[in-house]
Write a structure and sequence with these properties.
Strand order of the largest sheet: 11-12-13-14-15-17-19-20-21-23-25-26-28-30-31
Oligomer: single chain
Number of helices: 32
Distance between the termini: 98 Å
Helix content: 25-40%
Number of strands: 31
GO molecular function: ADP binding
Pfam families: LRR_14 (PF23598), NB-ARC (PF00931), WHD_DRP (PF23559)
Protein name: NB-ARC domain-containing protein
Shape: globular
Mean pLDDT: 79
Keywords: Plant defense, Repeat
Largest sheet: 15 strands, parallel
Structural class: alpha/beta
Radius of gyration: 34 Å
InterPro entries: Apaf_helical (IPR042197), Disease_R_plants (IPR044974), LRR_dom_sf (IPR032675), LRR_R13L4/SHOC2-like (IPR055414), NB-ARC (IPR002182), P-loop_NTPase (IPR027417), WH-like_DNA-bd_sf (IPR036388), WHD_DRP (IPR058922)
Length: 1056
């Protein structure tokens, strides 16, 4: 009830006056009733109406959700309303009415709505399914609790405080009566920046509410924060494909950080609660449990209050010009240019994989491959690839006739019999063009043909009367057909293309410029050819070529500007934040794919959509998308084709580095950042590049002692700390220890999610590291670390612990206290053993366990075999042969239960480190298994014919096979890489039969000393691209079938 107007009739009259524009009369009526104004009523002139409007919108969302929740209860569980239905319906009507009236205080209205939602949750406990789980006493208490809550809510509604009607806001009052569409509230958003920010908060709140009942007051505050994030969903969705200015990106980064803080705060509470629950089981711990739970809940309540205030502030200060900017984006700053033609044709070897993939699709009978678009950024080689395919021998045999159209008015006809390239027509006006189309139609109607459409269209191809396949070169990334996406070339492909385009031999002294040349071009074929043309006109000296490289920078920026434009047009905001992470690594640094994706996951930059999808799956798909769109350059691949190393091209890295700094993604070490930030000038992501100009250099490596009071001003809000101090001496390790110890003792790094010390020589981790309770990623790979601090078991939220290539040979049993652990990498070369006791509580969500050393004392049965979610498993087994027989059998039985297994690495060695017996059973049931590495003598060789069809990469070493393995393996339809290493095959003859190994691309034969004859039938190994033979002393002649394969690289290293 508005205190400014004594009756509802007067309030309605005031509304009518304002709707008619009679604001002064309405204001006079308010003054006449001012004597009725109470002390609780806010003063007209002191109200922040923008904040009220923002909170009112949130209140509408909360009310809509609660009313919908009750609607679902009434439909699905009507029996729970028996005895209280009248009161519940009364409250529902009052809230629905309050939802469309602007007079009530939105804060108080939300408070009532949350109370009502809590009561609805209690009503659900009265459902028949849940009533069976509780006793009579609990049922009575539940009824009493529900009635008390109903009385409280009914008393709050009439006492709701009201706001004065804002005269200046009356023109917009119709918005308050606009009904919100129900489907909008429960809409499942596409993966977007909105999803990546809001979804993690929703998941953690769901996990919290699934726990034992928390106090309604705390629950209310948590839901209020979640609802505030949800209220920004539509706004965040509108930011997709919008180029944000500096302030906009700062706002976005602040919101992302706040969401991450909410997630980690709830994680802390859940972990604390689990600890208290365990301690409750011990004698005399009941009081401590109650006190600890109360203290933890109070802390969560306080943090939720702080977060709500922060997100309210962010919501109030959100950029209001986004919608207009998205429609009128300034494209003048990104100049689009057309690629300049070049006289050089790229070397086929640079496009081997692409030609093979395209030819394979064209020659199949599958009609879904009838139209194949080639897509990629300008200058990446779309037209070049189309020409290579158009003139390919196999394609020529399959398609006797070919037509190439470009510019809409020009046709080129290729006739296999005449082997000619002649003009069918070069026409000047549209009428002649249509005449020529009819001639072309008549010519092709009874001929099998290949048609290349270069940014044009032929209407009659839309019908099924023609026997043709089509390659199209569309101008953008929008197509209905499954496209072939061209990527940037790798370093070796780039160098091959450069040397081919140069047409001259390169003096040995200039080979030292190789790395600089390939890095400068960033894998873009057009740039590579243009650079080759530029240096071909200069003297072959280091000075001349270096000068050309410096001058080439301008051309490079012009060509890359088109890619930047595509980023602004097509790349979502959350994908741009993933790109920001590349800038944390040093310039020209080859970034391991597994490392980058783990960092994305640790900071919640990627979110899974379904129950069967993991964050790692999303991260891999995100990376592949960036590669496919020409934004990330793959510099090294694994033999099975997966990405191993990559980097950003120089120009793109410079661009994203500036954007990341503007958005404060990195954190700027000067006070200038405060001009952009909404509330903090602290560093978010600390990276040690050994840069003496960086203020953090003195803190980490300086000789003076930084006062403990000054450190928090820099490092209190740091989310990740990465060090690239790769000096091979003791100082890097000591510097890390001192810096971490002093910072943690000063209250810094307490919200740290990532601690990545990969390649830092023997860092000494302080015991204080146990205080980093929110840490998710601890990277110690290749550090040769010798000991873990005992406090490591306190890192309850660690998801990835990477200790590969360390000097740790015994990992304490307390490591299993890390119940959130998903990826554990141990040091295989140092024989890392895990201490395991009876009844060890393993983290059931563990997906990766690599480098583990097993002996006869390691509990596998009724121990490790309880880990059933393993996707990647790597074990080394060694001890006394007799005692290990039982262990080998236990390992095999465990492996067969791992239905999610994708990678398996098993090594069996004796006490002298020599290959020993390896037990294995058929693995055909493991349908997700794609990688297998086996070292040891196979007791059951018949398993060679029972590998799963999903297998992509197989390595055998010391297997002791006496029968030709090729006869069993050649039927695996997806096998791409096969390595037969020393003593894997002991026979003299090997045969690859017709049609065998349809996908095999890499074949390595090492130290097969008994092999004398290898035959390859015609039609076998059709996809083979890389053949490597080493130290096969008895093999004198290579198969004739392989000697004339133009795309096959053969390397033979004879036995010494």
């Amino acid at each position: 009830m508005l205190h400014e107007y004594s009756t509802r009739k007067e309030r309605e009259e005031a509304w009518r006056m304002m709707a008619e524009g009679r604001n002064e009369e309405a204001k006079e009526m308010r003054h006449r009733n001012s004597t009725l104004k109470t002390n609780d009523t806010p003063d007209w002139d002191t109200i922040n109406w923008a904040e009220v409007d923002d909170t009112r919108d949130l209140a509408k969302i909360v009310l809509s959700r609660v009313i919908e929740k009750l609607y679902v209860v009434r439909i699905q569980e009507p029996t729970v309303l028996v005895g209280v239905e009248e009161d519940v319906i009364w409250i529902q009507r009052k809230l629905m009415r309050a939802r469309v009236e602007p007079e009530y205080s939105p804060e108080e209205l939300m408070d009532v709505a949350y109370d009502f939602e809590d009561m609805i949750d209690d009503l659900m406990l009265r459902s028949p399914a849940k009533q069976r789980r509780i006793g009579n006493w609990e049922r009575c208490l539940l009824i009493i609790r529900i009635h008390k809550k109903l009385i409280l809510i009914k008393s709050k509604i009439p006492a709701l405080p009201c706001l004065p009607i804002a005269i200046g806001a009356c023109a917009n009052h119709d918005n308050y009566f606009e009904e919100r569409v129900w489907s909008d509230i429960f809409l499942i958003h596409d993966r977007s920046v909105a999803n990546t920010i809001v979804s993690p908060v929703e998941q953690k709140v769901s996990a919290l509410l699934a726990q034992e009942v928390i106090h309604p007051h705390t629950k209310k505050k948590v839901m209020r924060v979640l609802d505030k994030f949800r209220s920004l969903n539509d706004f965040l969705t509108g930011l997709q494909s919008v180029e944000l200015d500096a302030c906009g990106m700062v706002w976005m980064e602040e919101l992302s950080h706040l969401a991450l803080s909410a997630v980690t705060a709830i994680e802390d509470f859940i972990n604390k609660k689990e600890q208290f629950t365990k301690s409750r089981m011990r004698p005399s711990r009941g009081f401590l449990f109650a006190f600890g739970k109360l203290k933890s809940e109070d802390k969560l309540s306080v943090e939720m209050d702080k977060m709500y205030a922060k997100i309210q502030n962010l919501s109030m200060h959100r950029p209001i010009e986004f919608s207009r900017q998205s429609q009128s984006r300034d494209t003048e700053s990104t100049v689009r240019i057309s690629p300049q033609p070049t006289t050089q044709e790229p070397k086929l070897a640079s496009f081997n994989d692409d030609v093979h993939a395209m030819v394979k699709r064209l020659l199949t009978d599958d009609k879904s491959f009838r139209v194949i678009p080639i897509m990629g950024m300008e200058g990446i080689g779309k037209t070049t690839l189309a020409k290579l395919i158009f003139n390919n021998k196999d394609v020529l045999n399959h398609f006797p006739f070919g037509v190439w159209t470009s510019d809409g008015y020009e046709f080129h006809l290729r006739d296999k019999e005449k082997l000619m390239d002649s003009n069918l027509g070069q026409l000047g006006d549209v009428w002649n063009y249509h005449v020529e189309l009819q001639r072309l139609k008549a010519f092709l109607i009874d001929k099998r043909s290949l048609i290349v459409l270069d940014d044009t269209h032929i209407p009659f191809l839309d019908h099924d009367d023609f026997d043709y396949s089509q390659i199209s070169l569309p101008p953008n990334f929008r197509t209905r057909s499954d496209p072939h996406l061209l990527r940037l070339r790798g370093d070796e492909e780039s160098w091959a293309l450069f040397t081919h385009a140069l047409k001259n031999s390169i003096p040995p002294e200039l080979l030292k410029l190789k790395d600089k040349i390939v890095r400068r071009c960033g894998g873009l074929p057009l740039l590579i050819v243009k650079l080759a043309e530029a240096v071909s006109h200069k003297d072959a000296t280091i000075e001349e070529w270096s000068t050309v490289l410096q001058q080439f920078h301008h051309d490079q920026q012009q060509l890359w500007s088109n890619t930047l434009y595509k980023i602004h047009e097509d790349l979502s905001l959350y994908m741009r934040r993933c790109l920001f992470y590349f800038t944390l690594f040093p310039k020209d640094f080859d970034i391991p794919a597994r490392r980058l994706m783990a960092l994305w996951v640790a900071e919640d930059l990627v979110q899974p959509e379904g129950e069967n999808e993991t964050p790692e799956d999303v991260a891999e798909r995100c990376l592949n998308m960036l590669i496919a769109q020409g934004m990330v350059q793959v510099t090294k691949k694994k033999l099975n084709g997966n990405v191993k190393m990559m980097r950003l091209p120089d120009v793109l890295r410079q661009y994203w580095l500036s954007k990341a700094q503007q958005a404060t993604f990195l954190g700027i070490h000067t006070d200038t950042r405060s001009e952009l930030s909404l509330g903090t000038s602290r560093i978010r992501r600390l990276v040690d590049h050994l840069d003496k100009e960086d203020v953090s250099f003195d803190h980490i490596h300086g000789d003076y002692n930084t006062t403990s009071t000054s450190l928090p001003s820099y490092y209190e809000d740091v989310l990740s700390f990465m060090s690239f101090d790769t000096r091979k001496e003791s100082k890097p390790g000591e510097d890390v220890r001192n810096f971490l110890r002093q910072s943690i003792s000063s209250g810094c790094f307490l919200v740290l999610l990532v601690l990545d010390l990969e390649n830092v020589f023997r860092p000494k981790l302080p015991e204080a590291i146990g205080k980093l309770s929110r840490l998710r990623y601890l990277g110690l790979r290749s550090t040769f670390l010798e000991i873990l601090p005992s406090s490591i078991s306190k890192l309850q939220n660690v998801q990835t612990l990477d200790m590969k290539h360390t000097s740790i040979n015994t990992v304490p049993e307390s490591i299993w206290k890390l119940q959130q652990l998903r990826h554990l990498y141990l040091s295989e070369s140092y024989r890392s053993k895990l201490m395991l006791g009876q009844g060890t509580n393993f983290p059931t969500i563990l997906q990766t366990l690599c480098g583990l050393f097993l002996d006869e004392e390691t509990p596998v049965r009724d121990g490790l075999d309880r880990l059933l979610n393993i996707r990647k498993l790597g074990l080394t087994m060694s001890s006394k042969q007799q005692a290990m027989s039982f262990q080998l059998q236990a390992v095999v039985d465990w492996v067969l239960k791992l239905n999610q297994l994708q990678s398996l690495r098993l090594k069996s060695i004796d006490q002298n480190n020599q290959p020993w017996d390896l037990e294995l059973k058929p693995l055909v049931s493991l349908v997700n298994l794609s990688y297998i590495y086996l070292l040891g003598r196979l007791r059951n060789p018949s398993v060679m014919s029972q590998f799963p069809y999903s297998l992509i990469d197989l390595t055998l070493s010391a297997s002791g096979l006496v029968e030709d393995p090729m006869q069993s393996l050649d039927k695996l339809p997806n096998l791409r890489s096969l390595k037969l290493l020393a003593k894997s095959y002991l026979g003299k003859n090997m045969l690859c039969s017709f049609g065998g190994f349809p996908q095999l691309r890499v074949l390595k034969l090492w130290k097969l000393e008994q092999l004398e004859e290898w035959n390859v039938e015609k039609g076998a190994l059709q996809a083979l691209r890389d053949l490597e033979i080493r130290f096969c002393r008895s093999l004198k002649i290579l198969p004739a079938e392989l000697l004339h394969r133009t795309l096959l690289k053969i390397e033979v290293i004879p036995a010494q």
